[in-house]
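Methods: example folding runs. The two proteins below were folded one after another, and each record is reproduced exactly as written to the output file, sequence line first and structure-token line second.
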Amino acid sequence: MHVGNKPQDPGRADLGALPPAEAAAVRALWRGAVGRTVRCVPTRRTVMHADGGRVWFAKWRVGGRRTAAAEWQWLHLLPMLGLSTPEPVAWLGRGRRSLLVMRGVPGRSLATWILLAHREGWLAELVAYLCREVAPRLRRLHGAGLVYRDLYWQHVVAEAPRRGSPPVFLDVERVLQPRWRWRRWVVKDFAGLLASWPAEVPLPVRAMWRFVRIAVGSGLRVRRSWWRAVAAKATQVRGRQPRFG
């Protein structure tokens, strides 16, 4: 598999390590012959393609080569820290256009699971799952000196949390190793989770405080002033209007 820091030219891409059907799907995605658009902004379009029970997601980018390179890198590196991500398949590029292809991830976002658990009466069980499965992974991320920057419950997927299936982290292109203002970045990560908690579901404050204590790395003491900073940042995040809907 290609693991370099530059995309392969579509005309000379070595896809021999992929199953033939998957290599054909990658080439068809590059040609625009398959797939349906699931998200589109001025510089990026995300396409989903399903065939024979297999699902791929592909991100088209115009310009933004550095962002694509970052996502390609983190898709390979974060699993080494114990954070599952979509499995990278191929990264093709020509001129200002690039296409990053990943295998689809089964399951639903944790934001959706929170809503379902609340409606069905097993929210306490789900929060225990978040503390057991998500919080330690976040601690590993921060312990490695990294921050997520797009950490929302919508960006974490699980197939069956009641059976303990591992969470999978999506949209990892903005992961960063900051050189300064560490507290600010960690506050932003936790604020993203707080802000994306579904408004229809009462926040179980004590349980989520337990989540925070598990997730915060040893280099940062959790004080009430720190939590107030998280809450204030979460208010800012909720108040932002999405740039592209």
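Second run, written to the same file directly after the first:
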Amino acid sequence: MIPKTVVEHDQSGLEMVIGAMAELQQTRFIEGIKSKHRTLYEVEQTTEMVRLYQARVNIEARALVRFSETFIRQFATENNKCFETAEVLFGKIRSTIAGLKKIFYKTTPRDYRQLPEGAEVPTVFEKSPISHGEYTPDMFGLDSYPEPVRKLYEALDTLFTTAATSLALCHQMIQEESETRQDIVRLRQIYEESCDELLTTVRAASDFLVQTKELPDNELEKLRQRAGQNRDKFLTEGYHRHHKKELTQFLVIKCVREGQNDGLTDQEALLWPSNHQKALQARQVIEHYDEIEGAEGQEGKLSSTQLVQFIKWSGVEEQKEKEFYTKYFCESYKPDGHYKTLGWNSISAKRKDLREGGFTDAMLAEAFSNKLQTTGIF
């Protein structure tokens, strides 16, 4: 009978390995060394191997902690519906699991007994003396063995502690994900925050900017349609089941459709996803921009100060201000405008100067709003 090294990529697999590592103690460790009749050379080589594993486990542990900080708070993740969360997490601790398999295999004695008919082959995590396997306590303890043996035990103890922490974190994330899916209040908050984060990213939204009248198929949109008016059902079934790109596309489709209903272009819908009235006002302001007092700057160019005021008045997210000015304002103004437009670097520099001069965004927006009142565009 040859024990297997299979670790199921699910919660039970995590629990099995965590449980095996938790049994490490000096007497079990000694049995694991004796059972394979290791020489001092082999012990020292094994210690070096364990230290190599330790370096890899450290790298994975740090990466896993970083991943865990945002995983639960994201409605959509980098994994997609083809992979369960446990599968994704096991991918992130691949070296950890591989190293543990080898260690438990190296400490599992051969067993030539025939298994009873129908019995399942046990794993090395069950058969190894350093975990749940049979062992006989050593009368003299670890202190009676040479120094290399003690060093191997210490290296294993450190490795198991680090690896157990990573596996426990994976286990915790799986449980917290399940609890979050049942906590509709928290789920609503996660969804809103994820939507706000994605919609403020111009590049992500631009990837899915629809150039034709036909909107693309989207699995989240289909889920929304199936859920009907039951928004909570949509959130529960959609949480952690779709890729971030799919959520971004869903949000763009939603923005475009809602914008079209209010008479906005696709570009306007993405620039003002939550304020369609401001989008219509901005469009009207650009059409009459030359009529606003202070529009002209130097040498036949537009005033950079007033442009910054206008941008702040528009209410566009700061991450989208460059896109708003270069792709929306300039392209809308140039055909009929009397003055030359400025490059974005000039606008950005003026924005910085005004801030350093003590002008807040609210003050700049209010200054432009006052000019609109005297002009009477609305």
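Comment on the second run: The chain has 18 helices and no strands.
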